[in-house]
Automatic annotation (TrEMBL):
InterPro entries: DBL_dom_sf, DH_dom, Ephexin-like, PH-like_dom_sf. Coiled coil: none annotated. CDD domains: RhoGEF. This is DH domain-containing protein. GO terms for cellular component: cytoplasm; nucleus. Signal peptide: none annotated. PROSITE patterns: DH_2. GO terms for molecular function: guanyl-nucleotide exchange factor activity. It comes from the Eukaryota. Residues 145-329 form the DH domain.
Length: 465
């Protein structure tokens, strides 16, 4: 289901996530003049010192891995989501090496710039203005490391903008590619990447502006904090759209030979440096998570009584909230997609149908159940509804014929059943529907395929919500 096809109620709640749809609908394609403005109106003085962000990320991950191996610790850490939520929200393993919000390499206190080859980065201490200031001989080693960490936020943003420029200039603005796609396909493919590039431009200008005022970087937390509202506005809809973006890429590359040829031609341009389209589309997702890690590194090296600590902590919290919003938004869209799919499968026949796509509804569990020795039913348990159905025959369209349904949990109760000589196997349970569509109270003796499945069903059906 397309996020643009959902209502605010479908996506939203009371946590501000209803803004997702507004953000997605406000994402409009920039014209040629706007693209030109984004690409050439501001050029960092350090752009020649940094590679494309894909290469920067690769070296960063390698540096982190080496550092963590030396410390003999695990290489995964929780970024935003509690550990009990183990399923990655986005799985793009078929394309590039994406990571989930829950599992991301932790930068720790390593200064990544120091681990990069000289040709790929510049250290703060290598800047001519820093050398001329005499600070290198006056500052203690701890302060020098802090300066490098703060400068890395600037340098990595330069690298990020270098890649965004290539993505917008060569892929997004390609006239041939636009002519080969419908407006909807083009939107799904690139989403609001121009807005993200504009936000990066403003962010980098402020970071470099502070460095122009003084080569001794006082703090970066205040600048990050200042830009977080804009980051929220542009990054959240982009990450939510990545599900449809990946689907679109796969469809185009597999089913449209002309588009495949166009994309391969663009990828062969020297500016792309052998990076493919998927790697450019992954940039915003990778950047918003990396910013938090960079802030963590800076905070670890900041003295507890430093004036900059307060804004650093606030900035980290603000970025954390953005990443969390991204995660929640993706999960909500997954739930809506699942409901839309089930709505097509469930056939209510002559009985009054129940609209499944309802705000806040989530599928909790589903599966077959033994109803008697010779029959079975299929249960779909939602957080507010229980649907009992039977699978359609092989000669019918795939799906289920609904037998009954009831509100959950108010009209549903379960308890263990006594074992009988004939009938369902041990570990069966009684399902009571106090009020259902069929009218009078109904009791069914059910058993899952395994004892563990039965326990899962019992636990879920006994839950008071």
């Amino acid at each position: 289901m397309d996020p643009c096809d959902c209502t605010n109620e479908d996506i939203g709640g009371h946590d501000g996530s209803s803004d997702f749809l507004e953000d997605l609908q406000d994402s409009r394609a920039a014209d040629t003049a706007e693209v030109e403005e984004l690409c050439v109106s501001f050029q960092s003085k350090y752009f020649n010192l940094y590679p494309l962000y894909q290469d920067y990320q690769e070296y960063c991950v390698q540096a982190e891995s080496n550092d963590l191996n030396q410390r003999n610790t695990g290489f995964l850490s929780t970024l935003t989501i509690p550990q009990e939520l183990e399923t990655p929200i986005i799985d793009y393993s078929s394309s590039v090496n994406y990571t989930s919000f829950q599992q991301l390499s932790n930068a720790g206190d390593i200064c990544l710039a120091e681990a990069l080859p000289v040709r790929l980065s510049s250290l703060w201490r290598d800047l001519e203005e820093v050398k001329a200031s005499g600070l290198l001989t006056r500052l203690p080693e701890e302060e020098l490391k802090l300066q490098e960490s703060m400068f890395e936020l600037i340098g990595s943003e330069v690298s990020y903008r270098n890649s965004l420029t290539v993505a917008v200039k060569h892929f997004y603005a390609s006239k041939e590619l636009k002519q080969s796609l419908t407006p909807m396909e083009h939107h799904h493919l690139f989403s609001n990447i121009c807005q993200i590039m504009a936000a990066s431009k403003k962010f980098l200008m402020d970071l470099e502006g502070q460095l122009e005022e003084s080569v001794l970087i006082s703090q970066v937390g205040d600048i990050v904090l200042q830009h977080c509202p804009e980051f929220h506005r542009v990054y959240v809809p982009y990450v939510i759209n990545m599900r449809y973006q990946e689907t679109m890429v796969n469809q185009l590359l597999q089913q449209n030979g002309d588009v495949l040829h166009l994309i391969e031609n663009i990828e062969s341009h020297t500016d792309c440096q052998r990076q493919n389209l998927r790697s450019f589309l992954a940039l915003p997702f990778q950047r918003i998570t990396r910013i938090k890690l960079l802030l963590q590194s800076i905070l670890k090296q900041t003295k507890p009584d430093a004036d900059s600590k307060s804004n650093l902590e606030k900035a980290m919290a603000a970025v954390h909230e953005i990443v969390t919003k991204c995660d929640k938004g993706v999960r909500k869209m997954e739930h809506i997609e699942e409901l839309v799919y089930l709505d097509r499968l469930l056939d209510f026949g002559k009985m009054k149908s129940v609209p499944l796509v309802v705000s806040g509804r989530v599928l909790l569990h589903q599966g077959p159940m033994r109803h008697s020795c010779f029959s079975s039913v299929y249960l779909h348990l939602f957080n507010d509804l229980l649907v009992i159905s039977s699978k359609k025959y092989w000669f019918q369209p795939a799906g289920f014929t609904v037998v009954d349904h009831a509100e959950f949990p108010s009209h549903v109760k379960v308890k263990h059943a006594q074992t009988e000589l004939l009938g369902p196997p041990p570990d069966s349970f009684l399902l009571h529907l106090y009020k259902s569509h069929s009218g009078p109270p109904t009791t069914m003796k059910l058993a899952a395929e395994t004892r563990s499945d039965t326990e899962v069903w019992m636990k879920l059906l006994q839950c008071k919500r």
